[in-house]
Amino acid sequence: MENIIKKKQKIAENTFEIDLRCPGIAKNARPGQFVMVRLSDNGERIPFTIVNSTKTNITLVFKVVGFSTKALSNLRKGSHIHDIAGPLGCPSPLEGAGNLCFVAGGVGIAGIYPLLKALNQKGNNLITIIGAKSKDNLFWVDKIRKESNKVLIATEDGSAGRRGTAVDVLGMIMRRRLDMVYANGPLPMMKNVSKVTWRMVKTRVALSTLMVDGIGLCGSCRVKVKEKQKFVCLDGPEFDAHEIDWDEIIRRTTMFCDEEAHASKKCKCGG
Fold first, then answer.
1. In this structure, which CATH number among 2.40.30.10, 3.30.43.10, 3.60.60.10, 3.40.50.150 belongs to the domain 4-88?
2. Residue 38's beta-bridge partner residues?
3. Whole-prediction pTM
4. What phi, psi does 191 have (nearest 5°)?
5. CA-to-CA distance for 69 and 79, rounded, in angstroms?
6. Class of domain 92-203
7. pLDDT tens column, 174-194
């Protein structure tokens, strides 16, 4: 039987990891792709990056931010997911060779893992910068270290690594020769990464935007790239960070705030 939760665990504050049995998706998944998950007939479709895969299972990591992710976090091992569509999106082109730097924050720490692993196997020198609010928000540090030549950690409260943000640390190492920067995390963080690397080193980012269907029909994941409209679900999720209209995409993240607040107030999914 497919779409079964084989493992579930809390890995950081409000952050969960689940392994799902999805042989059809798992055998075709490539670094950079995602799935759309729906928990019920009338539920919303939620995009999640495929952060690891085996012959039969895929791994997802998510943070509880609203009604649907709260409901997902309350499911137990053995639970059946109503439907999962994927793999979706374009696989990462795995660009760059030589000295590569990964910058990650939030669930983007897991999001960089498949790319990091693939580029490590190509023999690159990999520097990874992980940022979090505090040590309680950090996870997968050992997994990231295994695939990196060097790992630098920053926390806003100084409880682990350097005090500050991942972008602060990136600014400190920009004097080194870097051939490519990859970033994955909150949109404001990636916008600031693109500012730091502007005109200095090519930078790719994995966008996580609002999506309704994940197949290019709804248009909610629209993003302006080099003054042209692109769809994150079809043309992405990776793009050149220096070609993105960051202000527009950040504005669009507030599209369904009222609906989300209404759902969270009216619906209860347990604790």
1. 2.40.30.10
2. 83
3. 0.88
4. -60, -45
5. 15
6. alpha beta
7. 988 899 999 999 999 999 999
